[in-house]
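User: Can you predict the 3D structure of GYD domain-containing protein? Sequence below.
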Amino acid sequence: MLFGVFAIHSPDLCPMNNKNSKKIFLGIQGKMKATQKKFNIKKILGFYMSVLEHEWIIILDAENAHDIEQMCIQVGISTTSTVKIVPINDMQKVMDALKSD
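Assistant: Sure. Here are the predicted structure tokens for GYD domain-containing protein:
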């Protein structure tokens, strides 16, 4: 199942402006890869940032949102950001479902 993880932080906690946040951020990607199996993350499909919006968007193929929540806590994403986990669908699957009605 696909999930979008939307993590928003305030400008004062931005890794560009805050040394502690920078240290946490620099370790996140490695920690995510290291804990992927533990939290039933099948694949990290993308990790994107909007620097001026202070938002990270991570696309994951995972079993459930609860595991993603625990991963966000363990790797440090929730230390500096408010996190929203949203189930998402591939557009083609939605289009196919619409056409089958």
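The CA atoms of residues 73 and 79 lie 7 Å apart. The domain at 2-100 is CATH 3.30.70.1060 (Alpha-Beta Plaits).
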